[in-house]
Amino acid sequence: MTSKGMASSSNLRIQGDENLQSMLLGTVMRKIKSRTWKKQRYFKLQEDCMTIWYKSKKTGNSHSTFSVGDVEAVREGHQSEVLQSIAEEFPPDRCFTLVFRGRRGNLDLVADSPEEAKTWIQGMRKLIENLENMGQREKLDQWICDWFKKADKNNDGRMNFKEVRDLLKMMNVDMNEHHALHLFQMADKSQSGTLEDDEFVLFYKMLTQREDVLRLFQEFSGDGQKLSLLELVEFVREEQLQCEQSRQHALLLIDRYEPSDTAKKLHAMTIDGFLMYLSSPEGSIFNPRHQGLYQDMRQPLSHYVISSSHNTYLIEDQLRGQSSVEGYIRALKRGCRCVEVDCWDGPSGEPIVYHGHTLTSKIFFKDVILVLSNYAFKVSEYPVILSIENHCSVEQQRVMAHHLNSILGDMLLKTTVDGKIPSRLPSPEELKGKVLVKGKKIGSLEECVNGPGEEHVGEVSDEDEAADIDDDSTRRKAKKPSQQLSKELSDCVVYCKSVHFSSFKHARTHSKLYEISSFTESKARKHIKESGAEFVQHNTRQLTRVYPSGMRTDSSNYNPQDMWNVGCQIVALNFQTAGMEMDLNDGLFSQNCRCGYVLKPKFLRGWERFDPENPRGLEGYMPLRLSIQIISGQQLPKVNIKEGSIIDPLVRVEIHGVPMDQAKQETKYIDNNGESVPL
Questions:
Q1: Whole-angstrom Cα distance, residue 441 to residue 422?
Q2: Considering 355, 403, 538, 656, which one is annotated as catalytic?
Q3: Using CA atoms, how far apart are residues 167 and 160, in angstroms rounded to an integer?
Q4: pTM of the prediction?
Q5: Helical spans, DSSP H, in 190-317
Q6: What integer best gives the mean pLDDT of the chain?
Q7: Residue 314: beta bridge partners?
Q8: Annotated catalytic, 310?
Q9: Which runs of consecutive H residues, i.e. helices, occur in 225-322?
Q10: CA of residue 575 relative to chain centroid, distance
Q11: Deepest of 250, 294, 328, 395, by most Cβ within 10 A of its Cβ?
Q12: How many CB atoms lie within 10 A of CB 105?
């Protein structure tokens, strides 16, 4: 299906929807970047119902577009810092924010009337919903249509051979011109010298024909043309390892992915349906049983790895970057369950959050807590840990405590779950819907449970103060011998009292289960190398937090796997920085309903002695062999921005785990072929 076909399916979605019809006509709105940057732009929904086009009102200015698929959410009213800054000028019923996926900044808009704002808010949400509900065939049709529009330079609804050659370059394919012309002529059934509609679909199919997948298909197909129901059941059992209710599952796959009605009536799957199935999320290597909440959530907090963010308020670097509540929203929506605030005295008695002694911008502590109250449990109902690095005066500490209590209300955990002195840490299940504060505390939890003290201010020793000091930081400063701590803020800390770490021997005999120590990545690695087995044992009973070195001013990350190997629970990363480290984090926490808690393996929560540097010493040690067959890759992104460049792709497979398991292999690269890559 090409532009005409896609347009007809789009028309079906538009019919009867007044919001989408108005968006097709277009609207003038203000694009807001700051209190002083407010400019009018003309916004219009394209006929494909997948693209938003906009440009300046001034004639001659170039236009821009973005895909509906790039928009993650639509927020109404003053739900961004930019729109809050102009709240007195524009009422909330005219304001809304488009939140984009990835690292792209938000788009803040002000409509001329509440009715126009409502039209775009409801229309965008409808488009996002349509996209999320789109079937695999519709997604493929849309993908083909997108390529057609990119290649059809003169917008006449057909492609000549020159446009096809340009298309091949855009698709990362360096094809012999004679062969490309041969495919073009074979697809040009009308012999018009151009491709349109079904002809382009035929050209696309010939271009992306997957001989490797066809061979796999024919291994299970009796006649080489289709998979009967029994043959598909055999494939699902042998290759996909889905043995339970395999017949019902095969029928579901045919119904969901087979484009041919004739094949559906025969309960069969053609090569087109087979390819569509393998390219779908159901063809993923990810175990479908692990997508839902499948783990025991009733074990102590120390038995889980917890998705954790470092300096959550920063959305750029650590020295000059912007501080924003958006950092908390993005982290929480990714399933993060431990966020950090760095608190300092602010103007008018209001505490502020920023990276102290740097040029990073400042936000109010109160605004962070408001965001926490709104977003903490949208993605996961399991507890959020608020890690507080406190540099405030006693007076502003009391203001912090007031905001925590008044804004969070019953969300804030203020005492033990049963009102008794705990013999173990509570479970995520017991703490559902609760925010736990991690910070310094006056005295012990036992004293608080047995009866509150009379003092209104207490002193925290320099050992407690050292709990969150970056010992290898570029912002090194002299430690105070003690710090004044308000009782009100101290009382907000229950199960996560920050303490200085002396040694594993000292912790075994003196530490309480509700005490938590923090380590820079370098200190953690030192303990892993020198006392790995003791580190594992420590983490079966107490929480440990690890955070990036202060030298990482560019907000880069360390490898979290090293810390997970010894059972560290709160392994804090810079969520704003994409890369292998965040890929590992996203991969680990993509299981268990993305709830932000993953149960550690048994040998990291029991009393058997496990040393990640020498796993052979574990009782019942039995290594496994993993075999992976790489078939091919398709629709690979173009990474080289040089005009006309074609990529030489390869596939790299890496295993991350204990040092003995670390492995990496890669296929040979394929010259000049980024579209369909047999490997």
A1: 17
A2: 355
A3: 11
A4: 0.84
A5: 198-207, 211-220, 229-238, 246-257, 261-265, 271-278
A6: 87
A7: 323
A8: yes
A9: 229-238, 246-257, 261-265, 271-278
A10: 9
A11: 328
A12: 14
Cα–Cα distance for residue pair 567/610, rounded to 1 Å: 10
Region 350-372: mean pLDDT is: 95
Q: 101 phi and psi, to 5 degrees?
A: -75, 160
Give residue 1's pLDDT. 47
pLDDT of residue 542 exceeding 50, the answer is: yes
CA–CA separation, 236 and 512 (whole Å):
51
Alpha-carbon distance 584 to 576, whole Å?
14
| Residue tagged 């102590």 (tokens) | 300
Q: What is the pLDDT of residues 3-57, one digit of tens each?
A: 444 444 555 456 668 999 999 999 999 999 999 999 999 999 988 788 899 988 6
Residue 477 has pLDDT above 60, yes or no: no
Cα torsion 550, 554, 555, 558: sign: negative
Tokens of 233: 């059941």
Check: CB of residue 473 under 8 Å from CB of residue 354: no
Q: List the beta bridge partners of residue 66.
A: 52
338-344 average pLDDT score: 97
Query: Hey, what are 538's tokens?
Result: 């420590």
Confirm if 308 and 573 have CB atoms less than 8 A apart: yes
Detail the DSSP E strand segments found in 509-619: 515-520, 544-547, 570-573, 597-599
156 Cβ contact partners less than 8 Å away, ≥ 6 residues apart = none
* Least confident among 26-30, 481-485, 585-589: 481-485
pLDDT band at 660 (very low <50, low <70, confident <90, very high): very high
- CB-based contacts of 12, cutoff 8 Å, min separation 6: none
Calculate mean pLDDT across residues 359-368: 95
Residues 6+ apart with CB under 8 A from 644: 169
Six-digit token pair at 434? 């609760």
Reading the block at residue 279, the tokens are 């390219």
What distance in Å separates the CA atoms of residue 312 and residue 317, rounded to the nearest whole number?
11
Which tokens belong to 307? 């998705």
Amino acid at 478: A
CA distance 485 to 490: 7
DSSP state of 61: P
| Options 303, 310, 527, 656, the catalytic residue | 310
Query: Which runs of E-coded beta strand occur in 91-156?
Result: 95-100, 107-110
Q: Say whether 76 sits in a helix, a strand or coil.
A: strand
Q: What is the pLDDT of residues 199-243, one digit of tens each?
A: 887 887 787 777 888 889 999 999 999 999 999 999 999 988 877
